[in-house]
Prior knowledge:
By secondary structure, this protein is an alpha/beta fold.
Amino acid sequence: MTSRTVLITGGNRGIGYAIAEEFVRQGHRVAVTSRSGSGGPEGALTVKGDVTDSASIDAAFSEIESALGPVEVVVANAGITRDTLVLRMTEDDFSEVIDTNLTGAFRVVKRASKGMLKARFGRVILISSVVGLLGGAGQVNYSASKAALVGMARSLTRELGARGLTANVVAPGFIETEMTAELPEAQQAEYKKQIPAGRFATADEVAKVVAWLAGDDAGYISGAVIPVDGGLGMGH
């Protein structure tokens, strides 16, 4: 695999951390952003970056470009939740999730695309969720933000595909995290009944799919939605 400069937003924990670790393991030059500017995996450059602030993102890119070179692969992973039923959901609950998960991805992709177009090469990978297409009670805001990433990737593909860029979506399902580990066993069992594979995914399983999409073998794949959900979202 060709060594690339890779940026993962929100790479200081969870799936983003695992993605960054996988790219480091494969020998890439890896940077991650976090709001605090700390917390990334060993071997990665961690910079301060807030996806809700264009100036912050621009400064983060400038720091990364200075240290590692132009960003060739961007993984828009940073996201938040504000889960509650729609009748209880405030406009702030909705707009904050959209601003981080969707507009945040736009800010990052727009800044990354400048260097990618100049190089005539780029990999854009947007981290969505199974609920983006399946839906989730209490997640009108989150589901909407994650579904919109599909339209973003496909529009980017039509707009920039002839310039050497690909744009794809990875849609994880239930993942083994500290949060799922704290759920009561009965609730975990109920969730697993809905998953044909009968288990939660590991963050590493998501990371390996992301890394493959960024690699040389996936150069003709663009506008795709790749589920990593054990079959939970089939047909959606």
